[in-house]
User: Which sequence fits this backbone?
């Protein structure tokens, strides 16, 4: 009986860990993106970081790319193509000056993530999305998917990254 | 017996999940930072994202701040001060142009995380680090801690953020 009790403690403890790791921001019941049917994956905001980028020009954004466990494992192992089940989420925020940081450094040099602009999702399913390199795409603003016209631009934009399985973002160590 | 078997399956399954979530980049046996004794926390590279920043001037860096479960929970609940056990890791990379992105957009506007510069760690322990607002600091380059002189600058630099418990970074939704 002692063993069973210990096992039960272990189950509860581990279940607790798993639950605490995956709360919040689940919008699994949200609307699906046109063409690809991609939805915002539940718990994505807890995922590990792939890298960060800055997009200037008309965008003026700071961005972060997060990956699910399959994506992160593939990135770290440097394996291409990404396996089915890979999901990458790119979060885009307005790039805004940080008055607080600038005060500390004594000059205007710091920028932080401001209000969210949109999020873009890539889902790997080599059969389902065979015509678009095995990738399904989703573009969401405030939890709502962009229209079909916008989603038609996703794959053509990613085609130049064909040598990296259509993914631009590299892993930042 | 069936119940026990099911429990064992659950234990193995959950243990598998937990293990798969926390691999890589553990440098727990590494050198401790002077003054504070802070070490690089094992598995930090799997932690959830707090926000991203860009630091110009002499830095020319893109940065990401990651938090352990205690940090992320406190951020999402907006609770101050941060509870003991909070750990925040800031990763700093050189900000480099992305020729690949620029080609797609047809002009020079994209920057990505280049080579790692350093990482900075904040550990909350209100008793141990009482003289420095309850925070211990660590600054590491290539896994090696900076010297004592550098670590003496950590708390004075963070003092202006006293109203946010000495933490500059805000959570990016």
Assistant:
């Amino acid at each position: 009986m002692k063993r069973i009790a210990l096992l039960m403690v272990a189950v509860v403890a581990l279940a607790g860990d798993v639950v605490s790791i995956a709360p919040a921001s689940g919008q699994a019941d949200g609307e699906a993106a046109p063409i690809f049917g991609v939805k915002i994956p539940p718990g994505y905001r807890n995922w590990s970081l792939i890298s960060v980028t800055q997009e200037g020009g008309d965008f003026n954004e700071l961005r972060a790319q997060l990956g699910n466990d399959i994506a992160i494992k593939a990135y770290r192992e440097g394996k291409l193509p990404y396996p089915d089940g890979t999901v990458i989420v790119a979060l885009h925020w307005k790039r805004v000056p940080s008055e607080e940081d600038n005060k500390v450094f004594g000059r205007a040099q710091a920028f932080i993530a401001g209000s969210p602009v949109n999020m873009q999702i890539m889902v790997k399913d080599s059969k389902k999305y065979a015509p678009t390199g095995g990738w399904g795409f989703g573009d969401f603003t405030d939890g709502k998917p962009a229209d079909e016209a916008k989603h038609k631009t996703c794959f053509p934009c990613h085609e130049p990254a064909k040598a990296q399985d259509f993914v631009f973002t590299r892993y930042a160590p």
Remarks:
- The mean pLDDT of chain B is 87.
